[in-house]
C-alpha cells in the first residue's frame, strides 16, 4: 500500500472509525444495489409554459394516477380516484375546495379526514417501495418525519394497525394539524414518484413563466439540465453580453412576453419604451407584430410593444454585425445584411439578387457605417446591460443553470443533449474551428462549454471572458453549434422579406442521418457509450405528429422528445409535450394533451389526457447495481473492503 492509498483510507476511517461501522455500511450498500432503480423523467423544450409543465411534474406524468390504480383497483370509484389525485397534485387548493363545500358538516369532515389520511398513507407506501429507509427518511417533511417514518415502516409489533393508525389520525385532527399533514403527504408523493428529473434544454422564451419554472427547478430535489440554445442566450445576457441581451428582449417582445423581464425579473424596460416612441413614434412597425396577443390587451399597448420590438431588433442586427466583424473565425459574414441595403431605394442585395424590403424606415442607421449604434442606442444598451447584471433573481437562476447544467450528459446508458452532433453529409463529424484549434464530436461540446463558463465566471481574465461571452452568442445561433443545428438564423429575412426560400433554415445533416444506425452508433461511441445498450435523447426540433413524424427514431435508439410544451408549436405537433420515463421496467414515452387549468382539476376532476407508448421493456427489472449510481456504490464498497483489511492487519487502528 503506497502513501497516497494509506492517506485516502485514513480519511475514509474518519467516517467509519470501527470494523463494525465499515461492515454495516458494506452490508447496507450491497442491499441498495439490489433495489429497483429510481424513476427518471425527461422533458424538453418547455419554453416558459409553466402551467402545463408544472402540472406535468406534479402528476409525475400520469404516474400518480397509476399508483392510485395499483393501490385501490376497483375498491373505490373512479370519481374518488380523481378527487384523491387532485388532492395530491394541488393539496392546498383541493383542501380549500372541500372545506368550502362541507365546512358546516363537522361529522362529514371528521370522517373525510380519517378516510383521506388513510388513503394518502397507502399511496405514499406504494410510492416509497423503491426507497431504503435512510433515503426515504431524507425525503420526509421535517414537521412530520417521525410520524411518517412510523406509519410507513412495517411495524410487526403492532397487532391492530387500524386502531394504531386511527389513534394517530384522531390526534392529528384534534390538534388541527390534519390540513398541514395532508399538504405534506401530497408534496411527498409528488417527490417520490420522480427520483431524478432531466430537463433537455430550452426553459426560456415564448411562454410567460420561465422564471416560475426556474424557481420550481431550484427547489427540486434532484435535477440536471442540458442547455438549449434559448437557455444559452439568456446565460449570455446575464453575463452582460449586449448582443445576447438584445436577442432576449427581442424574443420577449416577439412573443408578447415582456412581462417576464419586467415583472418576473424586475428589469426596467421604460428606457426602451421611451426610445422606441421617440424613434418610431410615427412608424406602424407592421413587420414587427407580436404573437400571442391577449384579449384584454389594449391597442395602444400592442402598438408600443411593436415599436419596442422593432427598436431592439435593429439594435440586435447592429450588435451582431459588430460581433461578426470582430470574430471572422465564426465564419458568419453572410449574416451581415445591413451593409447590403440600398437605403435610398429600399432594396437589398443577397446572393447577387435584389429584393424589395417590406420596411425601409431606418432612422438610426448610418448608411456609411450601418453597424454603428447611435448615441441614444449606446446609452440605452448601457442601461439595459446594467439592469441585467444587477438583477439578483436572474443571476441566481443563471448560476443554477451553470451549476446543474451542461451541454450534454452521459447517464445510465443514455446520452442527453438538446440539439445535435454537427455532421457532414457522409455522417462524419464536422470539424469546427474554435479559437486556434479545430474540434469535432464530443470535443466540440467540451470546448464550447469551457468557453461559456469562462464568459460568465472569469471577468478578470479579460480576453477569455469576452471571447466566452461571444461564444455564448455563437452557441445560440451558429450553424456549427450543437444546440442550434441549422444553416442560419433567418431573423432578418422573416421580418423584412417575403421570399420563403430566403426564410428557410436548413437543418443539420444530423436530422437526415439519425435513422442510420452506423451513424448513431458512431455518436454513442464518441461519447463513451455502449451502442448495444444506449440511447440518444434530445429535443430542439418539434416532432410534427400531424405530418406523421415519430419521436422514436433508429429503431428506438434515438428519442427526440420536443412534443410542443410551447403553445406556439402545438398546432404543428398536435400534442402539448412529451415526457420520457425510465424506470426499472424500461423506457416509456408519454404524450400530453393541453392543460386547461388548476380549477378544472380541483373542482371538476378534469385532468389532462396522457397516452403512453413503450419504447423499451426490460426482461428483468433494472436494479441499482446496473446504474451509474450503482457503479459509484461498488467503488465505495471496494474502498470500504480495503479499509476492513487495513483494520484487520493493524495498518489502521480502530477508534473505539
Write the layout of secondary structure elements.
Layout: H1 3-15, H2 19-33, E1 40-43, H3 50-58, H4 63-72, H5 78-89, H6 91-102, H7 106-127, H8 133-139, H9 145-152, H10 161-174, H11 178-193, E2 196-199, H12 210-219, E3 223-226, H13 229-238, H14 242-254, H15 258-264, H16 270-280, H17 299-326, E4 341-342, E5 347-350, E6 353-356, H18 375-389, H19 392-404, E7 405-406, E8 408-411, E9 414-417, E10 432-434, E11 437-439, H20 441-457, H21 462-477, H22 491-496, H23 500-503, H24 510-513, H25 517-526, E12 535-538, E13 552-553, E14 558-560, H26 567-573, E15 578-583, E16 586-592, H27 598-604, E17 610-617, H28 628-649
Parallel strand pairs: 1-2, 2-3, 3-7, 9-12, 12-14
Antiparallel strand pairs: 1-15, 4-5, 5-6, 8-9, 10-11, 13-14, 15-16, 16-17
Count helical runs: 28
- Strand adjacency order, main sheet: 7-3-2-1-15-16-17
- Approximately how much beta-strand content do the residues carry? 5-15%
The biggest sheet amounts to: 7 strands, mixed
**Over all CA atoms, what is the radius of gyration?**
28 Å
Share of helix, binned: 40-55%
Distance between the termini: 24 Å
Poorly predicted spans: none
Shape: globular
Structural class: alpha/beta
User: What's the pLDDT, averaged over the residues?
Assistant: 92
* Overall strand count: 17
Amino acid at each position: 500500500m503506497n502513501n497516497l492509498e494509506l492517506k485516502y483510507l485514513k480519511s475514509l476511517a474518519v467516517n467509519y472509525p470501527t470494523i463494525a461501522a465499515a461492515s454495516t455500511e458494506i452490508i447496507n450498500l450491497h442491499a441498495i444495489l439490489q433495489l429497483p432503480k429510481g424513476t427518471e423523467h425527461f422533458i424538453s423544450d418547455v419554453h416558459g409554459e409553466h402551467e402545463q409543465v408544472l402540472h406535468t411534474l406534479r402528476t409525475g406524468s400520469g404516474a400518480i394516477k397509476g399508483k392510485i390504480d395499483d393501490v385501490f383497483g376497483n375498491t373505490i370509484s373512479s370519481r374518488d380516484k380523481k378527487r384523491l389525485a387532485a388532492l395530491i397534485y394541488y393539496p392546498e387548493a383541493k383542501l380549500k375546495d372541500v372545506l368550502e363545500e362541507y365546512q358546516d358538516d363537522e361529522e362529514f369532515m371528521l370522517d373525510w379526514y380519517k378516510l383521506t389520511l388513510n388513503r394518502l398513507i397507502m399511496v405514499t407506501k406504494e410510492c416509497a417501495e423503491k426507497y431504503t429507509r435512510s433515503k426515504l427518511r431524507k425525503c420526509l417533511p421535517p414537521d412530520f418525519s417521525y410520524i411518517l417514518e412510523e406509519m410507513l415502516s412495517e411495524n410487526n409489533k403492532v397487532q391492530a394497525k387500524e386502531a394504531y393508525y386511527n389513534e394517530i389520525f384522531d390526534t392529528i385532527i384534534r390538534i388541527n394539524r390534519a390540513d398541514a399533514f395532508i399538504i405534506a403527504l401530497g408534496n411527498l408523493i409528488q417527490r417520490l414518484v420522480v427520483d431524478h428529473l432531466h430537463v433537455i434544454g430550452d426553459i426560456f422564451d415564448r411562454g410567460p413563466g420561465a422564471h416560475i419554472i426556474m424557481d420550481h427547478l431550484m427547489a427540486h430535489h434532484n435535477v440536471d439540465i442540458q442547455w438549449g440554445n434559448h437557455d444559452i442566450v439568456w446565460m449570455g445576457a446575464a453575463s452582460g453580453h449586449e448582443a445576447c441581451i438584445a436577442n432576449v428582449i427581442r424574443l420577449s417582445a416577439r412573443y408578447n412576453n415582456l412581462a417576464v423581464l419586467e415583472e418576473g425579473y424586475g428589469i426596467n424596460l421604460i428606457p426602451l419604451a421611451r426610445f422606441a416612441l421617440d424613434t418610431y413614434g410615427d412608424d406602424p412597425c407592421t413587420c414587427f407584430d407580436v404573437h400571442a396577443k391577449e384579449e384584454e390587451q389594449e391597442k395602444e399597448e400592442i402598438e408600443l410593444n411593436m415599436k419596442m420590438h422593432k427598436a431592439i431588433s435593429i439594435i440586435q442586427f447592429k450588435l451582431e454585425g459588430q460581433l461578426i466583424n470582430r470574430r471572422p473565425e465564426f465564419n458568419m459574414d453572410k449574416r451581415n445584411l445591413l451593409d447590403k441595403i440600398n437605403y435610398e431605394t429600399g432594396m437589398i442585395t443577397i446572393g447577387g439578387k435584389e429584393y424589395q424590403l417590406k420596411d425601409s424606415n431606418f432612422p438610426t442607421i448610418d448608411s456609411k457605417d450601418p453597424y454603428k449604434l447611435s448615441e441614444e442606442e449606446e446609452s440605452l444598451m448601457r442601461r439595459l446591460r446594467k439592469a441585467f447584471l444587477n438583477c439578483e433573481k436572474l443571476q441566481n437562476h443563471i448560476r443554477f443553470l451553470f451549476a446543474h447544467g451542461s451541454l450534454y450528459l452521459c447517464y445510465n446508458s443514455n446520452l442527453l443533449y438538446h440539439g445535435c452532433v454537427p455532421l457532414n453529409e457522409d455522417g462524419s463529424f464536422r470539424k469546427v474551428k474554435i479559437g486556434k484549434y479545430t474540434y469535432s464530436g464530443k470535443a466540440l461540446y467540451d470546448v464550447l462549454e469551457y468557453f461559456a463558463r469562462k464568459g460568465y465566471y472569469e471577468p478578470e481574465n479579460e480576453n477569455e471572458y469576452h471571447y466566452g461571452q461571444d461564444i455564448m452568442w455563437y452557441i445560440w445561433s451558429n450553424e456549427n453549434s450543437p444546440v442550434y443545428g441549422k444553416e442560419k438564423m433567418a431573423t432578418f429575412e422573416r421580418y423584412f422579406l417575403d421570399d420563403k426560400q430566403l426564410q428557410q433554415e436548413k437543418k443539420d445533416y444530423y436530422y437526415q442521418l439519425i435513422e442510420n444506425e452506423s451513424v448513431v452508433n458512431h455518436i454513442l461511441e464518441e461519447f463513451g457509450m455502449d451502442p448495444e445498450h444506449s440511447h440518444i435523447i434530445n429535443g430542439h426540433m418539434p416532432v410534427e405528429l400531424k405530418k406523421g413524424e415519430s419521436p422514436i427514431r433508429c429503431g428506438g435508439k434515438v428519442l427526440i422528445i420536443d412534443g410542443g410544451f410551447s403553445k406556439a408549436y402545438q398546432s404543428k405537433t398536435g400534442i402539448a409535450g412529451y415526457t420520457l420515463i425510465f424506470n426499472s421496467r424500461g423506457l416509456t414515452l408519454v404524450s400530453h394533451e393541453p392543460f386547461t387549468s388548476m380549477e378544472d382539476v380541483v373542482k371538476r376532476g378534469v385532468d389532462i389526457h396522457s397516452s403512453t407508448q413503450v419504447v423499451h421493456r426490460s426482461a428483468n427489472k433494472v436494479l441499482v447495481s446496473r446504474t451509474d449510481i450503482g457503479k459509484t456504490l461498488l467503488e465505495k464498497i471496494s474502498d470500504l473492503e480495503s479499509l476492513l483489511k487495513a483494520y484487520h492487519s493493524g495498518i489502521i487502528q480502530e477508534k473505539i
